[in-house]
Amino acid sequence: MQRALRFLLLLFCFTLTIACQRQEKIQKEMPVVKENTNRYSQKVSTLLSQMTLEEKVGQMTQFNGFWDATGPVPKEEDNNWKYDLLAEGKVGSVLNVSGAENVCKMQEVAVNSRLGIPLIFGLDVIHGHKTLSPIPLAESCSWNLELIEKASANAAKEAAARGINWTFAPMVDISRDARWGRVMEGAGEDTFLGCAIAKARVRGFQGNDLSAPHTIASCAKHFAGYGFAEAGRDYNTVDVGTSTLYNVILPPFKACVEADVQTVMNSFNVLNGVAATGDEFLQQEILKGKWDFEGFIISDWGSGKEMIDHGFAEDLEHVAILSANAGSDMDMESYAYTRHLKTAVENGHVKMAVIDEAVGRILTVKEKLGLFDDPFKYCDVAREKEIVNHPSFREDALEIAKESIVLLKNDKKRLPLTKKQQNIAVIGALADDKTSPLGSWRIGSDDGTAVSVLEGLDKLGINYKYAKGATLNTNDPNFIFEIKVNEDDRSEFDAAIDLAKNSEVVIMVLGEHGFQSGEGRSRTRLDLPGVQQELLEKVFEVNPNIVLVTMSGRPLVLDWADKNIPAILHTWQLGSETGNAIASTLFGDNNPSGKLTMTFPRSVGQVPIYYNVYNTGRPGPLTDVVFWSHYIDEENSPLYPFGHGLSYSEFSYSNTQVNSTNQEKIKVSATVTNTSKTGGKEIVQLYIRDKVGRVVRPIKELKGFDKIFLNPGESKEVVFYLTEKELGYFDNNGKFLVEPGDFDVFISGSSTPQDIKSFTIFSDEVSP
Ligand code: BGC
Questions:
Q1: Is the CB of residue 182 below 6 angstroms from any atom belonging to ligand 1?
Q2: Is 447 in the pocket of ligand 1 (CB under 6 A)?
Q3: Residues 359-416: tens digit of each pLDDT
Q4: 579 CA to middle of ligand 1, Å?
Q5: Where is the domain boundary, 576, 606, 636?
Q6: Where residue 662 sits, what CATH number does that domain have?
Q7: C-alpha to C-alpha distance for 377 and 756, rounded to whole angstroms
C-alpha cells in the first residue's frame, strides 16, 4: 500500500515537473503582439466584439472540401462534425470546392450561422483554371511582365466565375536546383526578375479593385526557403546563410507585400532548424513587423502537424500553440486550431490578443473581397457559363506560350522550317499528347484539352508522317499519383527509325511528362526520361537532320543533344495552346524570344548551378595545377546560361556607356541593333558586380531588363538607371546598405558578359 502511495506521489511530481517545463517553455514562446484594434473597420471590430472564442478559432480554420456537389451534405459520415462546425459559423475557409452552384450552396450554410460570416474559397489557381497558360517557369522565360499579368488576370476571371475568391499563388520561391520538382511553379533562379514577376502576378490576380467579381485574393508562398530543399528533395531540410536569406529568398515576398498581396502561405520545411509554420522570426518579426504586412498567413497543407515529425512540436496541442503564437493565422488541414486552440487560450498559452489579431486580419480580407456586402458575388451561374473557357483566354494563352519558348540552339539557321518542306517525320509520344503539355498544378482543368503538337501542325497545313517511337505512360489515370515512365518499351523504335530513314527532316518531340514535375516530383536525373535518349540517338544514326523539341517542367541535361543535334527548341509545358505555339514557331510564324530563367547544367553533378555565384578564392581557370575550384571531369560552365535564348533575328550590342555624375541615378545605356532580315524581340539585360563588399557580392547580378522589338536593320538605344535599390544589398544583420566603391556593369543578351564598363560610388549613404 505504502509502495503504491510512494509510486503515485512520484508520478504526480513527475507530471507536475513536465507540465511546469512545458509552461516555462511556452512562456518563453509567447510573442509580443501589438494590440491594435483601431486598424480594423467598424464592421470587423463589431464582429470581433460579438464573436465567441470558438467562433474566432473557427475563422482561423480551413478545411479541405468535404462537400458532395449533389447536395448540401458532407461526402462521408466522418465529415458530419465538419458540417456541424460550418453550420455553427466555426469554419473560416474551405479549399478545393469550386463551381458556382457548389460554392453557393456551401456559402448559404455559412451565412445562415449566428453571425453570418461568409467563407472564403481557396484553390490552387497556378497557371490558369480551365484555360491554361504555360507553367509559371515557362512564362517567366517570356520576361514579359504585361503578358504575365494578363495571364494571371485571366486565371482570376475564370476561377472567380467558378466561385473561387482566393488563389494560392504566386509561388515566389527562388530555386537553384532543377532536381526540385516545384521549380516549374516559380519564376526561376533570379531574385530581381523573380520580384518583378511576383508583383505582376499579384497585380494580375488582384487587379485594382479586389471587391470586383472578377478579381481574387492572392497568396505569396512558401514562406520561406522552401526552394532551397537540400539535394532538391521536396520537403527536405533547408539550411541557408543569412546573406542568401536576406538577398535571395526574402525579396520576392517583400515585393508581393509591396504589391498588396492579401495572404502569405508559410511552408513545410525547417529553415535553419526552425519549422517555418512555427517561425516567429519570419512571420511576426519580418513579415508582420518589419514589412508591415496587413493580410493573413495561412499554413501549408498540414504543415502545422508536420512540426511534430520535424521534432519541433511535442503534440497537436503544442502545434496549435506554436503556430498561433508565431503568427500563422489560419490552419490548413492540421486540425490543430479546431481541436486545441480554445483550450490553449483558456490555459493561458496563447493570448486572446493573438487570436483577435489573426481573426481581424482574416475578416479584413473577406471584407476587402466584398463578401460582407454580397457573399454570393462569385456564385453567378450565368456568368460562369459566359466566362469559363472564353475564347479570348485561349488567344492570350497562345500569345504568352509563343513568348515562353526558348530557342536553345540553331546551327546554320536550321530553324525555321519552310512550309514547303516535304517529307517531314514527327517522332515522340509527346507530339500526340493532349494532356501532358498542360503541365503540373492544374486543378480545375480537364485532361485532353491541350492542342497537341500534331494538331498544331495540322492547323498550319503541314504535311508530315508520325511515329510514336517511345512510350510515356500518359494515359494511365493514376499518373497524377504514380509516376511510371515505361523504362524499357522499345517496341515502337523500328517504325520510328524507318520513318526517319525515309524523311528529309525529323522533328522529335521528347521530354518529361507534365506530371513528372510539381509537388513531390523530385528527380535525381535530369535527362530525357525512359528510353527517349536512346531513341534520339538511334534516329540520329539514320538521319542527323533533326529538330529537337523538348518539353519539361525543369531544366534538363541536354549535353548529348547539344553536341549532335543542330536545332533545339525548349518549350517547357505551354498549356492549352501548346501545339499551336510550337508549330507556329517551328515554321517561322512566330519568332522565338524567350530567355532562360534557370541555368541548364551539363550534368546533374553541377547542380545547384546558377549564374550569380560568388567568385571563390580560387576561381581559376588554371591549366597547370589542380588546386582551383573546379571539377576534374566536367567544366564549371553551364550548358546554357541564365538569360540565354536565341531568335530567328540576330542582334548586336554596341556603345555601352555609363554616366555616374548623378550618383543617385547612374545611367547605363547600350545600342542594340537587329542585324538580320527578320523583325524580332530581344530581351536586353543589365548586370552589375559590386567589386568589394563587407559581405562578398556575386560576380554578376541582374539589375535591369527590357524586352524590345526591332525591325530588320533597326537600332535602339536602351537606357537603364541604377539607384540605391539596385546597387545596395542586405548585410548579415538584414540591414540594407550601399557601399562606396567600384562596380562593373554590362548590358548583354544573356548573363554572358560583354563590353564590361565600370563606375564608382563615392558616398556611403545608407538607406533608411
Ligand atoms: C502545397 C501548396 C498548396 C496546398 C493546397 C500543398 O501541398 O504545398 O502549395 O497551395 O497544398 O493545395
A1: no
A2: no
A3: 999 999 999 999 999 999 999 999 999 999 999 999 999 999 999 999 999 999 999 9
A4: 29
A5: 606
A6: 2.60.40.10
A7: 56
